[in-house]
Amino acid sequence: GADLKERAKMDDAEVGHFVRRLRNLMDEIAALPVPTIAAIDGYALGGGLELALACDLRVAASSAKMGLIETTRGLLPGAGGTQRLPRCVGIGLAKELIFTGRQIDGQEAFSMGLVNHTVPQNSDGDAAYQRALTLAKEILPQAPFAVKMGKLAINRGMEVDIASGMAIEGMCYAQNIPTRDRQEGMAAFKEKRPPQFIGK
């Protein structure tokens, strides 16, 4: 999260500028055209959790601590937390977590759908990171353009009604049809061999 001692030295205009820049950074991370995975092995509080929420997938050690704790400091989440958390866990849970400023562990985060996976912490303190790498290795062999279009269709579709979302999916699918990777995927299936995707 943010360095609150540093923030306390800022005037109101500087705080506003700082938070806008932070929000823009989170939006840029969310808009990356490749899958992003947050690995939470320790604390992800305030801006740290907002960073994780800007990622596509999240993995946490069961002992990790996370929360949007801003209300405990007279603030509210300002880098996307009020928008991304409800889309992740639902409005009721998001309101409860934000209103109370409660910290939860990795197992609680998993049970409410905040993280995709929770793992016991290892002796190196990087269990979530290792599980995130395993997850990334599952994604890596897939057709890059298809994954990119899937991410775009999901992200844009979640912002609109389902009929508009279906239209967005159709546009993304249409962009995938002429790719060499789609042709390779079909040929590999027919020939009963693993596909060799090239991202085109």
Automatic annotation (TrEMBL):
Keywords: Lyase. One of its GO terms (cellular component) is mitochondrion. One of its GO terms (molecular function) is enoyl-CoA hydratase activity. GO terms for biological process: fatty acid beta-oxidation. InterPro entries: ClpP/crotonase-like_dom_sf, Enoyl-CoA_hyd/isom_CS, Enoyl-CoA_hydra/iso, Enoyl-CoA_hydra_C. It holds the Pfam family ECH_1. Belongs to the enoyl-CoA hydratase/isomerase family. This is ECHD2 protein. It comes from Burhinus bistriatus. The lineage of its organism: Eukaryota, Metazoa, Chordata, Craniata, Vertebrata.
